[in-house]
Design goal:
It is a single chain. The chain is α/β, with parallel strands linked by helices. The protein has two domains: 134 residues, Alpha-Beta Barrel (TIM Barrel), CATH 3.20.20; 92 residues, TIM Barrel (Alpha-Beta Barrel). The chain contains eleven helices and nine strands. It has an eight-stranded parallel barrel, surrounded by seven helices. Helix 7 links the parallel strand 5 and strand 6. Helix 10 packs across helix 11. It is globular and about 45 Å long. It starts with a helix and ends with a helix. 47% of the residues are buried.
């Protein structure tokens, strides 16, 4: 894997945001609106639909292997039942992760996902998932060595962003992989713009990742003034995406990457 990822090749370069007339487009759990979420099929399709990068969730199996899945259980997205961290890697890999859309898929590994993103020449946002801060820190401690093993000149390093709702996990990742870019996630309505910015600056992250319902144009402006980027999850309505472009958001996570392509194109036509 390391040898493969270290090969030099001409890779597709992601244009800066201003050249795209809008924010970076991240396929949320891949092209989740069209393919089984957090699967290699969904990741590939996201790039096919014009995404600049993908977002996915990582957590640990019972035997400490890193797997890509969102929920703490396999119940919703696979044909199995039980907690992810209570099942062996072998058992998780035997499940059908495409059950909801009747498109058979396996739960991917982190290594498979890195290889796909490298092959497509795109960006990657890894979200560290767990039910508790203690478990999230353990996920960070498992992920960091894999990322640190990437050669320093590998383009994956520059295109990688790590995020979590768990601030201790983000802090631990910054200790273990200080080169990696990090961000903090926010979803509850109790979060104000100033509180999000203050917490991000305290942790020393690059960006805040708020949900649209707790975001204002003023928060984006204040974050930029503080030197922070703002990547927004999850925006699926074209009107919401166009509003975030108008507000100068830096990135948008969406289940429908093609809607970002359309919205950015419309901005270019109307400019």
């Amino acid at each position: 894997m390391t040898q493969q990822l270290s090969r030099q090749a001409d890779r597709q370069k992601v244009e800066p945001a201003h050249a795209r007339n809008g924010p970076i487009s991240y396929g949320h759990r891949g092209a989740r609106g069209h393919a089984p979420e957090n699967t290699l099929l969904a990741f590939d399709l996201a790039f096919d639909l014009g995404a600049d990068g993908i977002e996915c969730d990582v957590q640990l199996s019972a035997d400490g292997r890193i797997v890509v899945i969102h929920d703490s259980t396999v119940n919703r997205t696979t044909n199995g039942r039980g907690p992810v961290n209570g099942m062996s890697f072998e058992a998780l890999r035997a499940l059908d992760a495409g059950r909801l859309m009747r498109l058979p898929q396996r739960i991917p590994t982190l290594e498979e996902t890195l290889a796909l993103v490298w092959r497509r020449g795109g960006l990657l946002n890894l979200e560290l998932k767990a039910d508790t801060d203690t478990e999230a820190v353990t996920v960070a401690e498992a992920v960091a060595p894999v990322l640190n093993a990437l050669p320093e000149d590998n383009p994956l390093r520059a295109g990688l962003l790590l995020s979590s709702f768990s601030f201790p996990a983000v802090a631990r990742m910054r200790e273990l992989a200080p080169w990696a870019r990090t961000a903090t996630l926010y979803g509850g309505r109790a979060w104000t713009g100033s509180a999000m910015i203050e917490s991000a600056l305290h942790l020393g992250v690059e960006a805040i990742h708020p949900h649209p319902r707790i975001l204002t144009e003023g928060t984006i402006r204040a974050a930029h003034e503080a030197g922070l980027k703002v990547n927004v999850w999850t925006a699926n309505r074209l009107a919401t995406i166009r509003r975030l472009i108008a507000w100068n958001a830096d990135g948008v996570f969406t289940d429908y990457p093609e809607r970002m392509v359309i919205a950015r194109r419309l901005v270019g036509v109307m400019a």
